Amino acid sequence: MKEYRKITMKHYCVEKLMCCCNTCKNEFVDIIPFGYELICFDMASGEKVFLPTYGENGYLDLLKKLVPEWNDSKEISFKVSKLFEERINNYTPYKVSYHNKTECMKCHSTEIVITKRIMKENYPIRWIEIDTMML
Question: What is the pLDDT along the chain (135 residues), one digit of tens a residue?
């Protein structure tokens, strides 16, 4: 039986976005990474999970483990990103994909207006879970 562990960090920042959909006028909140300290993924359910960028078992560390053909002195290409996304899904209890855009939760339109941005420190987020055998 697989055992999973959340990969977290103690101090981080996110942006809380107040959004309005131009298509259906739905108002909603979205949470995205602030700066480069977190990577955001979407689960099939639409819920977001986050992974620290740096440190032990962070994104860059896992990238080296899961995509050994990646040269860490080079940029992370689209091909490398797709390989990571494919391979990380072998070690999570749910399928994830990179979070690429904010969309309306009601009609799924990407025609969004951000009405307000607030930077939040240590805002409660869901952390990605990784199979402990991989760590």
Answer: 899 999 999 999 999 999 999 999 999 999 999 999 999 999 988 899 999 999 999 999 999 999 999 999 999 999 999 999 999 999 999 999 999 899 998 999 999 999 999 999 999 999 999 999 999
1 CB-near residues (< 8 Å, 6+ apart): none
At 57, list the tokens.
């078992």
Residue 37, CA atoms < 13 Å, CB-side half-sphere: 12
Distance from the Cα of residue 60 to its chain's centroid: 13
User: How many Å apart are CA 114 and CA 118, to the nearest integer?
Assistant: 11
* 50-59, Cβ contacts within 8 angstroms, sequence gap of 24 or more: 50/14, 50/125, 50/126, 50/127, 50/128, 51/7, 51/127, 51/128, 52/7, 52/8, 52/9, 52/12, 55/9, 57/7, 57/130, 57/135, 58/7, 58/9
d(Cα 108, Cα 123) in Å, to the nearest integer?
25
Q: Rounded CA gap, 31 and 100, in Å?
A: 12
